[in-house]
Amino acid sequence: MNPFNKSTGRVVLGGAGWSRQIVTDPTSKPVLQTILHALSLGIRAFDTSPYYDPSEILLGAAFSDPALTSKYPRSDLLLLTKCGRITANDFDYSPAAIRASVRRSLDRFSTTYLDVVFTHDVEFVSREEALGAVKTLFEMRDEGYIKHVGISGYPPAVLADIAVEIRQKLGKPVDVVQTYCHMNIQNTTLQRSLGRFYGDAGVGIVLNASPICMGLLRKGGVPIGELGDFHPAPRGLREAAAKAADWVEGQGENMASLALRYAVGTFASVDEKGLGVTILGGGSIEEITENVETVKKMLKMEDNSVEALDLRDYSLFDEEAYKKDEPLFKGVRDILGEWIDYTWDSPDAAFLEEREKRKNQEK
């Protein structure tokens, strides 16, 4: 099953921009006004997580506000959230915890159903835990609390393995997979797993999150929020990205804009279902406006004889626009050099070591 169609468009607005990982004081942001602006531009799908504290609380309040509900019917929106990840090192995939998390999300959004619920960063738990959590979400889908079930995480190949195992052992596929930092100007390895997602795993749609690699692919480097520097990119990759950003600026361009154009265009061109849905960042009116205008540069309308109403009218990959950017794309990738398609470990060695210590203590 696939929740995305022409009425929802190719873009999801991510909620991490209202988390303490990204900004120092998310509660100071005008969230309702920002969401209303995103809706006015044509964005209809929104993704968050309890782990992005306090993003889900802030977004839930916005989507429960009469100023929004009086103008945008619930049936016109896609609300996506996650479950299972509590903090950076704590996960609870037990059936009771999954149910409690979903119910809490329903309450926060003042809704009777959620369009998609993902298990958050599923590669951090055992396969038994992963399958148990997805089984619980399938049950909640049957009960009407969830429309679509998904899994999310970092490594596409691992997510594909898990998705295939879910279909084999639970007898049905997950509807949606969300992966991040694997379809951008530095790393395009998501493409290698698309065949398995849409083939053996039977997944309905794959979402590409973090098209600028969690802020790495921009002038100024990774964002630093209340929780400090959380980004796992090593020094060499950061230095190469900074060098590339300087080069792009010297060409009269903006690194973040170019990286977003690359991610949107490349994914739209290679996604086997012709959808190429990208999760955008943006925690302010200015950022969202800029990102939407950037996305529109890589897409075109089906019918140019009519006037576009909003972002959803831009549904087709614009190959001609992409080709114009190819010299810049090549220049950046040449500078990144050895760091092209580099991936970090997820989970990393420190997490695995800590988990092993906990297991030994529990014996």
UniProtKB/TrEMBL annotation:
Which InterPro entries does the record cross-reference, listed alphabetically? AKR (IPR020471), NAD(P)_OxRdtase_dom_sf (IPR036812), NADP_OxRdtase_dom (IPR023210)
In the record, what terms sit under GO molecular function?
Answer: D-arabinose 1-dehydrogenase [NAD(P)+] activity
Keyword Ligase tagged: no
Q: Does the keyword Oxidoreductase apply?
A: yes
Q: Which UniProt keywords apply?
A: Oxidoreductase
| SUPFAM superfamilies per record | NAD(P)-linked oxidoreductase (SSF51430)
Tell me where on the tree of life, at the top rank, the source sits.
Eukaryota
| Name of the featured protein | NADP-dependent oxidoreductase domain-containing protein
Question: Which source organism does the UniProt entry give?
Answer: Dactylellina haptotyla (strain CBS 200.50)
